[in-house]
Amino acid sequence: MVLLMMLHPTQELEPPANPARFTGLFIATESWLNASAPPQMRGGVFAVYMVATYATFGAGQFMLGLAPADHFDLYAIASGLLCLALVLVSTTRSATPVLPESPKLRLRELRHLAPVSIGGCIVAGVVSSAFFALVPAMAASAGFPTGSISKIVAAAIFGGLAFQIPVGWLSDRLDRRLVAAGLSFGLALCAVACLSIDPVGSTLSVAEFARVFLLGGFFSTIYPVCVSHANDRVDRDRVVAVSGQLILIYGLGSCLGPIVGAWVVGRGGMDAFFWFLAASAAVFCIVAIIRCLSRERPRNRRPGRVLAGANVTPAGPQEPTT
Questions:
Q1: What is the Cα–Cα distance from 243 to 231, expressed in whole angstroms?
Q2: What is d(CA 284, CA 280) in angstroms, rounded to the nearest whole number?
């Protein structure tokens, strides 16, 4: 009931106006994962978390038809699911994270330790928010029916779902900055390939859906790779501060994406929008490659199995690297 009151502070049951109420859930979850997972497993563990996130994100779209959007039913269902999640967390046998006094981490210090992570989170936020905010609107204005629009969005979501485990496995064995550069390069190529999508008609071809699928896979995996890279470079007691900073940076990028993207669409249409996505990814790719050539990867990472079991425990003290 407390959660429902937070969702609906007024009797009109209007939608929540402050998404920041849920930011604490993401910070707590991501900092717990990054504190518990040893560096050589961090990418794979975080990939499983992202798979769960994207799977429920995609499944949640289909719940919108269960009841009218202005009724209480959907919010009651959401509250029940969150309560169920609390029960599962409360009954877990995994060791709870130690709560040491977490030192603050200034954005300037994070920029010095992991500039690639900052740039990647900004680009991931800009691209993903611009895509999910503007592509459905452009498709609707081009005459696509609601069913086709939902398929386009679902293709991007399931692309992100399919990419998480392979990319997490790869990032545990290679320099994460190099993996992030490769993802942004693939994102740029897919954005250019989407220029050939014909906006006239009622649906997309299989090849066009495949391009959207790959596009979603690439832009959805940049963020988790960058978060894992940043946590490789700080002490374990700073993971909460790192998670909070990176979520904030990603959120700022998510705010800028629809604004800048809408301006680009107004100037040059759908083609200009995809060029905007490609240019954003290309700039980050260049930055990540330059950092790979100028700075060594963290020395405390060794290749290991992605998932060693249900309970993930630290592999020992991490050596801070700069």
A1: 8
A2: 7
For residues 39 and 42, what is the distance between their CA atoms, to the nearest angstrom? 5
| pLDDT for res 150 | 78
| Residue in 315, 174, 232 with CA at minimum distance from that of residue 34 | 232
Greater model confidence, 107 or 15: 107
Which residue matches tokens 């210090």?
109
Distance, in Å, from the CA atom of 79 to the CA atom of 100, rounded to the nearest integer, reads 31
pLDDT by residue (tens digit) across 212-254? Answer: 999 999 998 998 899 888 888 877 777 777 877 888 888 889 8
Are residues 300 and 232 in contact, defined by beta-carbon separation less than 8 angstroms? yes
Number of other CB atoms surrounding residue 151 within 10 Å? 16
Structure tokens at 9: 């502070």
CB 185 within 8 A of CB 244: no
Q: How large is the greatest C-alpha to C-alpha distance in the chain, in angstroms?
A: 58
Locate 49 and state its tokens.
């978390």
pLDDT given for residue 275 in this prediction: 95
User: What is the amino acid identity at position 47?
Assistant: A
